[in-house]
Design brief:
The complex is a heterotetramer, with 2 copies of chain A and 2 copies of chain B. Chain A starts with 16 loop residues before the first helix and ends with a helix. Chain A has helices at residues 17-32, 36-44, 46-51, 57-64, 68-73, 78-87, 92-100, 104-112, 124-128. Chain A is mainly alpha-helical. Chain A is built from 9 helices and no strands. Chain A is 60% helix and 0% strand. Chain A has a domain at 14-89: Orthogonal Bundle (Protocatechuate 4,5-dioxygenase, Chain A), CATH 1.10.700. Chain B has one domain (3-277): Protocatechuate 4,5-dioxygenase, Chain B, CATH 3.40.830. Chain B is built from 9 helices and 11 strands. Chain B has an 8-stranded mixed sheet, with helices on both faces. The chains are: A mainly alpha, B alpha/beta. Chains in contact: A-B, A-C, B-C, B-D, C-D. The interface between A and B is large, with 52 and 45 residues. Strand 7 (116-118) of chain B pairs antiparallel with strand 3 of chain C. Bound molecules: fe (iii) ion (2 copies). One fe (iii) ion (FE) binds at residues 12, 57, 59, 126, 189, 240 of chain B.
Chain lengths: 129, 280, 280, 129
């Protein structure tokens, strides 16, 4: 796909058509967890339940490993992958800490201090320094 | 004749709903946020709108990637709270206003907005948390509700300009409805936040404050903000703010700010609330 | 660079599909209609488009009253023939063009058309009959297809003007796609027919002929036809002709008619077919 | 609902919001006949199957009686009610004849002769004479 002007935002996975195509079935699995009976099935047999969706093995592994960044890279959409976090009883802070690879305490503290500042976080080039 | 008397902008953060549902609003973490909601709730009680048009986004609850409407208007009699993965919120059922909703759908489509008309739609925190923010925990919601769902989950979202124009068309359509109704329009979501990726936790209070200011001072600037500026400056989910522009478009140019509250953090989000009133 | 080289307007009558599927095209009733399809099929074979954008309406097959999109674009890899109540037509699966379809969806939404993006959609006679009309009974359809479904089932349909403008935006979006593709756009449905009520069986050959003429002679007039004029003059289902205007909008102003066929009756419908080519 | 400029077209049921609200469940029943298993159920027990939809008794009766005009008046949409005609093995001409209350032969003949003319059929007032 063509280059987009949002490609240079660091640490951000814009869910565009390319990501949609990659992550379609991964996200549809996530969505299925809206239903209590599906949550029960997934709890009882995670691997077996994942096999009922035509996802890639890499996507299934990312789900089983709770590799939150991996899921985004494989086409996951945060509004969908967060359903797995809900399933696990995690909060948005837990998920945010995992994706930004800090402890939950540090992540919460950053938010109490006003959140991650935009300064220094606008462009990939700023992260490469 | 129906008319839009005011607009409300408010974040729709799931954990704010949970704090209300679990009775935690007086905890140290939540108290400053909820203290600021007090005057807005009082305004809502005094204003007693007949109908609230609630502009929100569905978060993989009613819609999935199977089918992604840009703008969907709910014309049903009732909308049930959605199960988002924890079981549905224990809040009242949302009563629609099918007559006005159909009138809007018909007017908007003839006015060249390409609405999706929805007869069945469970409503998630995007719609019910703003009701809780403004009405607390009543046994019944105090007004009828017309849900207007905007796609923000899939890039590209509609432009801020398009949302604003849709708001203008809604105002016109409401005014051509043949019944005396006081209508309030809610723009929900935002403000700055990024839920995903290594940059998760981004909050930009300066961006948010300028956005609140310019809802009255410089709407033109807001309407022109391109998607990438939202993504970069307000975080990838900050783009939900386009729904506030839809609300703003439905108000007169001379609408006045009568209340504002802003607090960081609420969960991972810059939580904003604003009330704008049309001239009477 | 991709480009739209031509447009095809054709009715999409279910019994025309059945006549093909059941080998009845040489029967006395059907022969005059199918004789006229011959040259169009030859044109299609010679033109060999890479992609056909097929503008059609769903007839309570993929969409129901639960959710009614005004414009829905199919971005999937494949679309299966729908079961409309007789079991699915035994025709080849329809292969999509997800890259171009996503490019269109993204371009159109940023261009302020409020598209619904669809990943799963069985396609009914509205889409498969035009393919049969133009391609007969191949083992595989000769080109990729992007389905573009327009609501005509629920009043109000989008205006003819809005459809025309969407066509123009599609042409622009196709031209910004970075691959050499020859694209043909089909506008389907119509022409005059009324399936329902005591007035069932209405056909207006004068209206249809003038419509065919003005696709090149006076597009402006066609674009301004209001809904009630279609309903009154072309029958309640004649309003499907707005989909031909979408096709027309995607062509250059100077597009030339290179073939036309019109026959009454085909089932309850005035059956039209037209091929318009852009300047090369 | 307000008056519409299409209200004066004779013998025509424009499926607008008012009709949608009236006929919603009737039409959703019709739509269900897209599925083979539902067609089987409806064939085996028409009344019982209709009771699974929250339609009015009047709507159920119109379906059982194959009262095609009645269905339109009760909010039916022809694209939906035609599913019942398909179920019955009827063609569009059979349905058209039933709705315009002539024999199928006469209806077919009218079509072969060029269809119902628009002259005299534009306005309700023309039918009242
Ligand atoms: Fe949201
Ligand atoms: Fe059709």
């Amino acid at each position: 796909m063509s280059k987009k002007d949002y490609d240079d935002i660091p640490g951000t996975y814009v869910f565009d058509g390319t990501q949609n195509r990659k992550g379609y079935h991964l996200n549809m699995f996530c969505m299925s967890l809206n239903k209590a009976e599906n949550r029960e099935q997934f709890a009882a047999d995670p691997e077996g339940y994942l096999m009922t969706f035509p996802m890639t093995d890499e996507q299934r592994k990312a789900v089983l490993d709770r590799d939150w960044l991996g899921m985004l890279r494989l086409g996951g959409n945060i509004y969908y992958t967060f359903k797995i976090a809900i399933f696990d009883g995690m909060t948005m802070q837990d998920a945010g800490a995992a994706m930004s690879q800090v402890t939950v305490e540090d992540f919460k503290k950053m938010l109490l201090d006003g959140g991650r500042p935009v300064e220094g976080n606008r462009y990939k080039s700023e992260w490469e320094k | 004749m129906a008319k839009i008397i005011a607009g409300v902008g408010t974040s729709h953060i799931p954990s704010v709903g949970a704090a209300i549902d679990n009775g935690n609003t007086q905890q140290e973490y939540w108290k400053p946020l909820f203290d600021g909601y007090g005057p807005a709730r009082k305004w809502m009680e005094e204003t007693k709108p007949d109908v609230a048009i609630i502009v929100f986004n569905d978060h993989a609850s009613a819609f999935s990637l199977e089918l992604i409407p840009t703008f969907a208007i709910g014309v049903a009699e009732k909308f049930q709270p959605a199960d988002e993965g924890y079981g549905p919120r224990q809040v009242p059922v949302v009563n629609g206003h099918p007559e006005l909703a159909w009138h809007l759908a018909e007017s908007l489509i003839l006015d060249e907005f390409d609405m999706t008309i929805v007869n069945e739609m469970p409503v998630d925190h995007g719609l019910t948390v703003p009701l809780s923010v403004m009405c607390d925990q009543p046994r019944e919601w105090p007004c009828k509700v017309i849900p207007l769902a905007v796609n923000v989950v899939q890039y590209p979202q509609p432009t801020g300009k398009r949302c604003y124009n849709l708001g203008q068309a809604i105002a016109k359509a409401v005014e051509s409805f043949d019944e005396d109704l006081n209508v309030v329009i809610f723009g929900t979501g935002g403000m700055s936040h990024q839920l995903q990726g290594e940059r998760a936790g981004l909050i930009n209070a300066d961006f948010d404050t300028a956005f609140l200011d310019d809802l009255t001072a410089d709407v033109d600037r807001l309407v022109k903000i391109p998607h990438t500026e939202y993504l970069r400056e307000a975080g990838s989910e900050g783009i939900e703010l386009i729904m506030w522009l839809l609300m703003r478009g439905a108000l007169g140019e001379e609408a006045k700010e009568i209340y504002r509250h802003y607090h960081v953090p609420a969960s991972n989000t810059g939580a904003g609330l604003i009330i704008l009133e049309n001239e009477k």
